[in-house]
Write a structure and sequence with these properties.
The protein is α/β, with parallel strands linked by helices. The protein has 10 helices and 8 strands.
């Protein structure tokens, strides 16, 4: 069985609060060896960190999502940045820019994004970037940060739906590109073409669960076990076998987030279970 890593799952959200153990069990059975649990505000980030203490196959990030900024006090925003120093935390974010909902003033989003980028560089932990209807300002802030540091940006454009030109710019800046369930949607041929064009050593897969369930699970709540369907779709788009994508994306995830190689432990669990 192919071994996968889900690099973006909201297991700390209310959607999973009562059944995390079952979700993890189903992920293991599907071949998922590790899950990166994403923080989006202070409570969510603390919950992600607590889950990682309970389950070794989970690793947390901490951050303030652009759409959550106004829900947090200044002290909350500071506390998220302080949590980032915890050795269990493998990434900074989810952060970024969002012009779709228009609920948070854009200057506050930009300030928060810049602060997350600075913290990422300060701690040497990758940044997890959200970009919705905000391609130009996102690239502007990323370029400015790269110019200030003089270094490639360690991080990932999560649930990427931009075009090839934007992807190439992100890759030049040092970022990885992560694809979620939307690549499987029948109407998204252009996204599958992008999946075929991204260098294999810079490609990641994710669920963004409980959102964006892939085909053939659309209409259901998404969960980490379903990352397999996204991986299969990418393999088909690239005309390679599923194992090629699983091995490459898992190696990329371990390299970016400094994750353990749990392949052996997962295999032993399957043997014990049989």
């Amino acid at each position: 069985m192919s071994i996968w890593i889900d690099t973006h799952a909201h297991l700390s959200s209310d959607a999973f609060v009562d059944h995390v153990p079952e979700v993890i069990d189903r992920a293991r059975l599907a071949g998922v060896a590790h899950i990166v649990v994403i923080g989006t505000n202070l409570a969510d980030s603390r919950r992600a960190l607590e889950l990682a203490r309970q389950y070794p196959m989970l690793s947390p990030t901490v951050g303030t999502h652009p759409n959550n900024i106004l829900e947090q006090t200044p002290q909350d925003l500071d506390s998220v940045q302080e949590l980032a120093a915890d050795p269990r935390v493998v990434g900074i974010g989810e952060t970024g820019l969002d012009r779709y909902w228009k609920t948070v003033p854009f200057d506050q989003q930009e300030a928060s994004f810049a602060r997350h980028l600075h913290r990422s560089s300060e701690l040497g932990k990758p940044v997890v970037i959200h970009c919705r209807d905000a391609e130009e300002p996102t690239l502007r802030l990323l370029r400015a940060h790269a110019d200030r540091t003089g270094q490639p940006i360690s991080g990932v454009m999560h649930s990427f739906v931009g075009g090839l030109e934007m992807a190439e710019t992100c890759l030049e800046l040092g970022l990885y590109i992560s694809l979620a369930g939307m690549v499987t949607f029948k109407k998204n041929q252009s996204l599958r073409e992008l999946a075929a064009a991204i260098p294999l050593d810079r490609l990641l897969v994710e669920t963004d669960s409980p959102y964006l369930s892939p085909e053939p699970k659309r209409g259901q709540s998404n969960e980490p076990a379903y990352v397999v369907w996204t991986g299969k779709c990418i393999a088909q788009a690239r005309h390679v076998d599923e194992e090629t994508i699983a091995q490459a994306t898992s190696a990329n995830a371990r390299r970016l987030f400094h994750l353990p190689d749990e392949t052996r432990s997962l295999s032993s669990q399957e043997t014990d279970a049989s």
